[in-house]
């Protein structure tokens, strides 16, 4: 069965592009709407497998989309949402991750350019994983840079941590960094030891632990 | 302390008394014999004395007594032809026009004449207020105690009471000084106009500079990248049939260029108006800013509503600049940002534990913040001793509503009461009060010889009650009229007194 998608995006060109892109990759676009209230109705009514949402939507052109997504997730916990935006903010990332259930993506709109990676991110979120924009992760790490345990990571471990925080699986990380699976596993174990986190079983719980760790430092 | 003040006041009065004949002579020679060169020194001399009195009074009473003088005229500027024009006369050198302007400045300023009035009267007022208690003390102490056994304690009592009145007398003198020497509404307005035009110029300047910066950034950044992208795409189009592989490489390059252009635009937008600010308002924008700073920032924000956009933006950029300063120069580790509303004012306090030594005069962007917030009457207070901690306070007095409508309009019930009073006050006062009294005094009789009672209630009452009833109706009407006048006055008392001047008393609002 095709995964069902709801799209909330006010720019016609981008909305249309997303519809075509997703349909070409085997998704079923059940609703493509252009305003906050419509989006909320679609999310509640359709209960899609994944929703792609722009932060800024009519009528107020403030953070309508984000608010609609958060409201829908309060009613339907764990509803997979991928938020797209012209800019990324740690503040919004925290709000999205706050309930700790995952199934959240937060990407710059530029990431749509690379269809393959974008579709990968959509699939990951639909499956309950996370997809954080590298820019969010970079900001998170930069603002945590002075904290001690992070300083003790080796450069390679830092790279692994960044990719892990973006929500990638061990397999994806090993492919990205041209490492063997066992090497990545060794690095992640070492990172978890240094950050004093309990090594989690599945990829997703592991990512959430890392993000929670990075966020907690700044509250 | 009282004795010191007493002596100081007496000394000042004596000095004024000594200067007075000189001043009168100078004025006489100036206006009588046309020795106009005497005016400036004499008027300015009196100003010095008056300023000393103002300083004294403000210091003693703790209430600032600002100088009321108009600002000194700016030096004359030559026209394009190099001549100096004043009214309908052209001058070759700036000397005459400058002199004329100075003359006008001194003569046309009401404060000069108020000063003169003060100089003429102050010594006598001082003596009248301060000498009697001193004489009474002296008399009380030196009372001829041998004359009567009671005279000594009585004299002592007189002396003590007189000594106790001296602080009151000094207070009274302060009030008297305030009457003549405080700033007039007009001079306050003049000062305000000056500061406003300065603020306007700097606001316009900084806005223009901002636009130039944006233009330059767009021109060198995104625009140039888009041009390069177009060229790359063109080249790819040419290659695509002959060499698809090379075309693919070019297309990938074009995509990278578009990503870079987008990143640059994002940075630029953040500098113009940060997206979070537009989406969430000041509170969340500052929180987002704090998250992006590598310092430990504690943010406490207590804002009930969103501010209007220009103030929000100014406040945001001020906080951003202060945070950047704390990161770059202060060597701080912990920063506290506190934003609260205080009446119509917005107060932002940024404290850090850095090395201190922030000084607006040494650059570091503090002057820029001052200029930016000056457009909103904002002020920046800096406390940054060497070694820290640094505390910066930004106060935007009219962030929530303007100066003019800081007073809410009257509540409905007050309006109803006022309307009711105006509508009914005539009834007890005229027909039931005054007219009834007149009818009763002159005993108006109708054609049938009966007393005319019409609808005057009092006349229907028993004889004994008629006068008390009338005597009650008249004050009742007066009270209603007074209430109708006083309610609105009470409501806007602050504004009213603020705008009252000697010449235009409290009748106009």
From TrEMBL, chain A:
Domain HTH luxR-type: 146-216
Sorted UniProt keywords: DNA-binding, Phosphoprotein, Transcription, Transcription regulation
Any one biological process term the GO annotation gives: regulation of DNA-templated transcription
Residues with PTM 4-aspartylphosphate: 54
Gene3D superfamilies: 3.40.50.2300
GO MF: DNA binding
The keyword Transcription is assigned to this record: yes
Pfam families xref list: GerE, Response_reg
Presence of keyword Lipid biosynthesis: no
All copies of domain Response regulatory, residue ranges: 4-124
Name of the protein described by the UniProt record: DNA-binding response regulator, NarL/FixJ family, contains REC and HTH domains
Source species of the chain: Sinosporangium album
Lineage: Bacteria, Bacillati, Actinomycetota, Actinomycetes, Streptosporangiales
From TrEMBL, chain B:
Pfam families (alphabetical): HATPase_c, HisKA_3, Sensor
Keyword Metal-binding: no
GO CC terms, sorted: membrane
Limits of the Histidine kinase/HSP90-like ATPase domain: 314-397
Catalytic reaction equation(s): ATP + protein L-histidine = ADP + protein N-phospho-L-histidine
Boundaries of every Putative sensor domain copy: 9-181
Residue ranges of domain Signal transduction histidine kinase subgroup 3 dimerisation and phosphoacceptor in the record: 210-277
Protein name: histidine kinase
Taxonomic source organism: Sinosporangium album
């Amino acid at each position: 069965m095709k995964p069902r998608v709801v799209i909330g995006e006010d720019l016609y060109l981008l909305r249309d592009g997303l519809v075509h892109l997703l349909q070409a990759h085997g998704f079923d676009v059940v609703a493509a709407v252009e305003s906050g209230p419509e989006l909320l109705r679609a999310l509640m009514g359709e209960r899609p497998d994944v929703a792609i949402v722009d932060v800024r939507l009519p009528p107020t052109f403030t953070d309508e989309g984000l608010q609609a997504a958060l409201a829908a997730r309060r009613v339907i916990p764990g509803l997979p949402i991928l938020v797209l935006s012209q800019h990324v903010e740690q503040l919004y990332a925290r709000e999205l991750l706050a309930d700790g259930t995952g199934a959240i993506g937060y990407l710059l709109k530029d990431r749509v350019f690379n269809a393959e990676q974008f579709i990968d991110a959509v699939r990951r979120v639909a499956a309950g994983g996370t997809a954080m924009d590298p820019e969010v992760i970079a900001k998170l790490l930069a603002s945590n840079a002075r904290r001690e345990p992070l300083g003790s990571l080796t450069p390679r471990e830092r790279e692994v941590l960044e990719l892990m925080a973006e929500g990638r699986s061990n397999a994806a990380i090993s492919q990205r960094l041209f490492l063997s699976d066992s090497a990545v596993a060794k690095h992640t174990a070492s990172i978890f030891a240094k950050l004093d986190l309990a090594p989690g079983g599945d990829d997703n719980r592991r990512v959430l632990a890392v993000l929670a760790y990075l966020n907690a430092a700044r509250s | 302390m009282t004795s010191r003040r007493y002596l100081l006041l007496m000394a000042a009065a004596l000095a004024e008394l000594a200067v007075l004949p000189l001043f009168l002579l100078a004025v006489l020679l100036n206006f009588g014999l046309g020795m106009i060169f005497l005016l400036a020194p004499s008027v300015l001399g009196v100003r010095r004395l008056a300023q000393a009195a103002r300083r004294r009074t403000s210091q003693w009473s703790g209430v600032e007594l600002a100088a009321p003088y108009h600002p000194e005229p700016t030096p004359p500027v030559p026209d394009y032809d190099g001549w100096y024009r004043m009214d309908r006369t052209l001058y070759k050198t700036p000397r005459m026009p400058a002199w004329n302007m100075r003359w006008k400045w001194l003569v046309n300023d009401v404060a000069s004449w108020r000063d003169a009035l003060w100089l003429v009267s102050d010594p006598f007022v001082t003596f009248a207020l301060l000498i009697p208690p001193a004489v009474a003390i002296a008399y009380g102490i030196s009372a001829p105690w041998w004359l009567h056994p009671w005279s000594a304690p009585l004299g002592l009592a007189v002396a003590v009471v007189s000594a106790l009145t001296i602080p009151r007398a000094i207070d009274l003198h302060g009030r008297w000084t305030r009457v003549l020497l405080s700033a007039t509404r007009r001079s306050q307005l003049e000062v305000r106009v000056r500061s406003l035009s300065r603020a306007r110029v700097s606001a316009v300047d900084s806005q223009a500079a901002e636009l130039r910066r944006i233009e330059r950034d767009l021109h060198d950044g995104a625009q140039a990248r888009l041009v390069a992208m177009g060229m790359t795409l063109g080249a790819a189009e040419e290659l695509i049939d002959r060499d698809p592989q090379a075309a693919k490489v070019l297309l990938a390059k074009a995509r990278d260029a578009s990503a870079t252009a987008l990143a640059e635009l994002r940075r630029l937008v953040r500098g113009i108006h940060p997206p979070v600010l537009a989406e969430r308002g000041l509170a969340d924008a500052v929180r987002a800013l704090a998250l992006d700073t590598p310092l430990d920032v504690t943010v406490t924000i207590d804002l009930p509503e969103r501010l209007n956009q220009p103030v929000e933006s100014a406040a945001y950029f001020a906080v951003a600049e202060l945070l950047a300063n704390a990161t770059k120069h202060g060597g701080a580790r912990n920063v506290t940002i506190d934003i609260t509303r205080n009446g119509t004012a917005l107060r932002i306090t940024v404290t850090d534990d850095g090395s201190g030594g922030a000084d607006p005069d040494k650059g570091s962007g503090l002057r820029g913040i001052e200029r930016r917030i000056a457009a909103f009457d904002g002020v920046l207070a800096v406390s940054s001793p060497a070694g820290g901690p640094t505390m910066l306070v930004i106060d935007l007095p009219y962030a929530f509503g303007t100066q003019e409508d800081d007073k809410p309009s009257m509540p409905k019930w007050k309006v109803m009461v006022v309307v009711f009073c105006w509508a009914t006050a005539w009834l007890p006062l005229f027909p039931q009060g005054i007219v009834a009294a007149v009818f009763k005094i002159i005993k108006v009789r109708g054609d049938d010889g009966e007393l005319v009672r019409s609808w005057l209630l009092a006349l229907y009452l028993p004889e004994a009650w008629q006068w008390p009833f009338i005597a009650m109706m008249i004050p009742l009407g007066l009270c209603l009229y007074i209430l109708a006048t006083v309610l609105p006055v009470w409501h806007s008392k602050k504004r009213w007194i603020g705008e009252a001047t000697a010449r235009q008393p409290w009748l106009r609002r």
